[in-house]
């Protein structure tokens, strides 16, 4: 199991951040994810592996001027 957004999701071998977002049904364009204590930027979501029992925080992009 992994924990993300106060939900628990079943983990599977080879699970990436992109896989997790698909399983959540979350199409929001997050800028990064914090997996345990490791930051992963959006461009790496398709290849960034999630370990079992991970705690994940999704980080939205911030814009301004």
Which CATH first-tier class would you pick? Answer: Alpha Beta
Mean pLDDT: 93
Total E-strand runs: 5
> How much helicity do the residues have?
10-25%
The CATH architecture is Roll
Annotated CATH topology: Ubiquitin-like (UB roll)
Domains, number = 1
User: Would you list the SSEs in sequence order as H and E?
Assistant: EEHEEE
What about the largest sheet? 5 strands, mixed
* Strand line-up across the major sheet: 2-1-5-3-4
Give the overall shape, derived from the CA principal axes: globular
Low-confidence segments, given as residue ranges, are none
* Count of alpha/pi helices: 1
Overall SS class: alpha+beta
- The fraction of residues in strands falls at 25-35%
CATH homolog superfamily:
Beta-grasp domain
Separation of termini?
40 Å
Radius of gyration: 11 Å
Lay out the secondary structure:
Blueprint: E1 2-4, E2 7-9, H1 17-24, E3 32-35, E4 38-41, E5 55-59
How would you describe what is shown here?
The chain has one helix and five strands. It is α+β, with helices and mostly antiparallel strands and 65 residues long. It has one domain (2-59): Beta-grasp domain (Ubiquitin-like (UB roll)), CATH 3.10.20. It has a five-stranded mixed β-sheet with strand order 2-1-5-3-4, covered by helices on one side. It starts with a strand and ends in a 6-residue tail after the last strand. The relative contact order is 0.31. The model has no long low-confidence stretch (mean pLDDT 93).
């Amino acid at each position: 199991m992994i924990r993300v957004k106060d939900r628990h999701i079943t983990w599977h071998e080879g699970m990436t951040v992109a896989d997790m977002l698909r399983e959540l049904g979350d199409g929001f364009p997050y800028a990064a994810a914090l997996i345990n204590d490791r930051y992963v930027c959006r461009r790496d979501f398709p290849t960034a592996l999630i370990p079992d029992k991970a705690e994940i925080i999704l980080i939205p992009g911030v814009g301004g001027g």
